[in-house]
Each structure stands twice: as structure tokens, then as C-alpha cells.
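The pair is set out directly below:
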Amino acid sequence: MTTKLEGPLKREIHIDGSAYTLTITPGGLTLVLKGRRKGFDLEWKALVSGDAALATALNASLAAPAVRGSASPKQASTSAKGKRR
């Protein structure tokens, strides 16, 4: 038998040598760097519906370096050598 979650439950966890506070509430969970006020919030609805996975994938794609232009760096440097002022 499980216990119903009625109030906040706080626990300390360590990730890569840094201490975090994990707060689990009936509305969701919050992960905050210890000693700070702002952190990561996740609602249970977003986790269950898959919105959390979609947001994670979107953030990962935005963080990836963008490829600009079709010319390789070698081609760009050779064409710049030909132009002298």
C-alpha cells in the first residue's frame, strides 16, 4: 500500500559533485541547486503526456551547434587567399 502525497517532500541529491534539493509535491517536482531559489520545474501532467520529453528534445536541438553555409572551411580559406587588396 502506498502513502498519498499531500505535502512537499524534500530530499538532497548529488549530481556531478554538486548538491541539489529535490522537492516532490502533488503538482510536480522541482530540482534546485542547493542554496539557490530558481531551478527546474516539471509538472506531473507534462511528464505523463510526453510534453517533458518533447521539451527536452527541443532544448537539445537548440543547444546543438548550427551548421552555417555549404562551403567547407578549407574552401573558404582558399577563395579568400585569391582576393588581395
Remarks:
- The helical segments are 44-49, 51-63, 73-82.
- Residues 1-51 form one domain.
- The two ends are 81 Å apart (CA to CA).
